[in-house]
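Section 5: illustrative case.
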């Protein structure tokens, strides 16, 4: 037995020597293969590491052997095919369970450091809140061109007016002096009165939103009715026609106030909630002050240009062109205020930021001015046609032709409204989108959150519109009585003009609460889980879905079969 032990030791030594010689041969051959750039290195490394679990001595030897091979591998040229293949992880032999457990942390670190070779879907670029591109450049160019022509025409007409006072005949001089005496003071007074009324309405809505919604609905009814009755009582054909229009509008306004009575409570609540962030921005009204100041100066120059047009060719056409220019300019001013306030309030809702009002105002005057110009042309037109289409839909009865026309017009206007609406100004201000894209994206948000019935039934825009009508009616009452006592023939013309000025300037100031309400709806649709919003809109949606809200259906005339 004692003699057998040395034999076993010698056999073990022989086997170890054999393994060492075999490993040395393999090492030499693998070094040659590495220099040649062959691909079989990785498989042999894994195979040798799997066989290294037989005993502790072999494990240590094979680990040293593997480290030597890896050191050889690290010396390879980066352009060597073997290293390229291994870096790309394209050929890997099936590892043993032990090797897979050991190589798992290493593979995870490699997967984190090295990009995957499999194609991954491209992620959408995050929407930036600081877009530097100019939106709707064609509209911006047209508006700037229009303003250059309007200023040049106004200056030229003022020159013609002064020339007429100096060099024209006595009859022309008397005519221009009469217009200056009995036309210009009334227009300037109406402009100042409109600015005062505009700030009065805005301040009252901020303090007492619930009361003012009811007050505006019925005060507009009374003021427009009073203006119409006053003009009819003047007993002149032009004032009679104008007075009938005011009375007809007052009747429609009263019917509308009764029809939307079930929506007033929700509108008051939205007004109260949406106006709360205004207290955090003390200078939020500064753009309104600037725009109304510029509006006063421009209307003064515009009035002198109207007087000068009387001493030039085709006075009616020139005055109509000046009126259209004034309407577009003041509407752009209103939308500039709207975009400025929308950006300040939207960034507060979306990011919790307190932005600089001055920076937002400069941005609205530069990068987003094209969208304001385009929206100023299309939004009033689209909304007016939409109201007409809805009126036709209400009035259609047994007439099949009227039925088809009403529904066709309504569907067309609904389609157009998706591509151009006043809700778009929020995304124009926040993300710098174009007018059409912003309209489509905003309406898609409403559809996603099932908010179309809620926003479609909103009466905020109607309240702002009626506020402008109320201011215009008050101006008509004051100016018509004044002009009738000093120069009767100008009564109808000046009354119509002062109503127009009062409406436009009041709408500029009312753009601030309108923008706050728009931001409340649009930002809620973008992130309903925002902590700044409560359950007001959710409760409204639940009421509409459960049919517990008193929604007035579209009246239809039932068809009777004739025997």
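Designed sequence:
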């Amino acid at each position: 037995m004692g003699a057998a032990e040395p034999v076993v030791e010698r056999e073990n030594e022989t086997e170890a020597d054999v393994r060492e010689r075999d490993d040395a041969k393999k090492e030499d051959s693998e070094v040659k293969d590495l220099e040649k750039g062959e691909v079989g290195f990785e498989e042999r490394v894994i195979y040798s590491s799997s066989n290294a679990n037989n005993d502790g001595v072999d494990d240590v030897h094979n680990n040293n052997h593997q480290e030597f091979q890896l050191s050889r591998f690290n010396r390879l040229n980066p352009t060597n095919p073997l290293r390229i293949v291994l870096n790309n992880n394209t050929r890997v032999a099936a590892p043993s369970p032990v090797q897979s457990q050991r190589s798992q942390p290493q593979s995870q670190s490699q997967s984190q450091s090295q990009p995957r070779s499999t194609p991954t879907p491209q992620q959408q670029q995050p929407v930036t809140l600081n877009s530097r591109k100019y939106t709707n450049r064609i509209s911006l160019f047209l508006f700037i061109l229009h303003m250059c022509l309007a200023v040049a025409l106004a200056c030229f007409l003022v020159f013609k007016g002064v020339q007429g006072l100096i060099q024209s005949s006595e009859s022309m001089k008397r005519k221009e002096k009469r217009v200056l005496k009995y036309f210009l003071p009334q227009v300037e007074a109406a402009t100042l009165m409109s600015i005062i009324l505009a700030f009065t309405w805005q301040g009252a809505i901020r303090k007492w939103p619930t009361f003012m919604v009811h007050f505006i609905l019925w005060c507009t009814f009374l003021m427009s009715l009073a203006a119409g009755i006053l003009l009819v009582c003047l007993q002149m054909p032009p004032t009679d026609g104008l007075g009938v229009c005011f009375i007809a509008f007052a009747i429609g306004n009263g019917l509308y106030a009764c029809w939307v009575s079930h929506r007033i409570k929700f509108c008051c609540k939205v007004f109260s909630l949406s106006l709360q962030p205004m207290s955090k921005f003390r200078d939020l009204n500064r753009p309104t002050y600037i725009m109304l100041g510029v509006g006063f100066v421009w209307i003064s120059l515009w009035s002198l240009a109207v007087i000068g047009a009387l001493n030039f060719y085709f006075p009616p056409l020139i005055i109509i062109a000046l009126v259209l220019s004034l309407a577009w300019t003041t509407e752009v001013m209103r939308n500039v205020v709207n975009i400025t306030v929308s950006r300040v309030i939207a960034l507060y809702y979306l990011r919790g930021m307190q932005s600089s009002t001055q920076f937002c105002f400069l941005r609205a005057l530069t990068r987003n001015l094209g969208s304001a110009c385009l929206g100023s042309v299309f939004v009033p037109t689209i909304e007016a046609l939409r109201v007409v289409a809805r009126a036709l839909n209400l009035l259609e009865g047994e007439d099949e032709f009227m039925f088809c026309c009403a529904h066709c017009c309504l569907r067309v206007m609904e389609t157009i409204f998706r591509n151009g609406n006043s809700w778009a100004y929020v995304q124009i201000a926040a993300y710098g989108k174009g007018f059409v894209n912003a309209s489509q994206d905003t309406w898609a948000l409403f559809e996603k959150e099932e908010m179309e019935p809620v926003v479609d039934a909103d009466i905020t825009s109607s309240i702002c519109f009626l506020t402008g009508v109320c201011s215009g009616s008050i101006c008509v009452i004051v100016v018509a009585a004044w002009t009738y006592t000093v120069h009767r023939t100008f009564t109808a013309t000046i009354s119509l003009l002062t109503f127009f000025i009062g409406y436009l300037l009041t709408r500029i100031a009312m753009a601030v609460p309108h923008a706050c309400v728009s931001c409340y709806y649009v930002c809620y649709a973008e992130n309903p889980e925002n902590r700044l919003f409560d359950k007001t809109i959710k409760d409204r949606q639940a009421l509409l879905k459960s049919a517990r809200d008193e929604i007035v259906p579209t009246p239809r005339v039932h068809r009777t079969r004739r025997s």
